[in-house]
Amino acid sequence: MYPTHRPRRLRKNPAIRSLVRETHLDWSQLIYPVFVAETSVRQTPVDSMPGIFQFNIDGVVKECSTLYEKGIRSFLIFGLPEQKDEKATSAYDEHGIVQEALRRMRREFPEAILFTDVCLCEYTSHGHCGIVKDGIILNDESVELLARTSLSHAQAGADFIAPSDMMDGRVAAIRRILDENGFSDIGILSYAAKYSSAFYGPFREAAHSAPQFGDRKTHQMDPANRLEALKEMQSDLEEGADMIMVKPALSYLDIIREARNRFDVPIAAYNVSGEYSMVKAAAKNGWVNEKVIRDEILLSIRRAGADIIITYFARDLALES
Ligand code: PBG
């Protein structure tokens, strides 16, 4: 090979490197997650996620308009209700926090793409993702409420429903209820391969959604499993998902790549709270170069095969520009 092949010729200067660069990160591929709380406080910082806040509706509109002007077009909305109960009533309340935020955001940003996270964990008093009976999370009873929640989001103006609960059959149930009610044009981005992960730690502080007992291992996936992820993604597509997600992203780049190779739909990856907080914490200590490491991480998720990245870093990227 050498000296005929000299790969360094293609790395000689920035222009050549740019010419042969294989992967790009475009802001149109980013979704920014936002936490909306039923409170009069405009914004409350999330300690474990520097730069991230719980907003009230006025606060979230302000935040999103700043980012929208900078070119971030897609938002994923999480709700923090005032009332929690065993049936997650606030999740499917027509005047719930997400529903009200959606109506305002729809009005303020008619062109934005509004995704809503659909799960019950932020709305149940015990913090589990579904209805609990005798310590067991009931599948079908929970799916019914998830479908109701999804319909109320569609009615309030969501473009895409993003179920993150990992109950069986929820995509089919959501597709059905949307279609039956005249929302056949509202899409589903399913959290299809969602692993049971310690990387969600900071999120649970942000969303007040930590389970009061037990864990999420009976519905979220075992980090050891690859084939199971493919099966989950396959079945969500068969049930009617328009796009599928792998979550978390960084420890699961292999799964993202397999999804990209196997399925002909847009693949999303969630660069989750723990991945964000680790970078922030290390950067604060001066141990890593925050911007360079962030860009490297986001690029690696794209290179692995993700078309879309859900990331808290969208904010810094936008504000820096
Ligand atoms: C469930 C949900 C979680 C995340 C998104 N949706 C938490 C969980 O499953 O416990 C995690 C997101 C993150 O860590 O950034 N509603």
Which structural class should the secondary elements be placed in? Answer: alpha/beta
Low confidence ranges: none
Which CATH class of one domain applies here? Alpha Beta
Instruction: Work out the helix count.
Output: 11
Which strands sit side by side, in order, in the main sheet? Answer: 1-4-5-8-9-10-11-12
Mean pLDDT: 97
Order of helices and strands: HEEEHEHEEEHEHEHHEHEHHEH
Helix share bin: 25-40%
The distinct ligands, each listed once, are: ligand PBG
Taking the sheet with the most strands, its summary is: 8 strands, parallel, barrel
Tell me the total number of β-strands.
Answer: 12
Strand content: 15-25%
Global Rg: 20 Å
End-to-end Cα distance: 43 Å
CATH homologous superfamily assignment of one domain: Aldolase class I
Large-scale geometry: globular
CATH architecture of one domain: Alpha-Beta Barrel
Assign the CATH topology of one domain: TIM Barrel
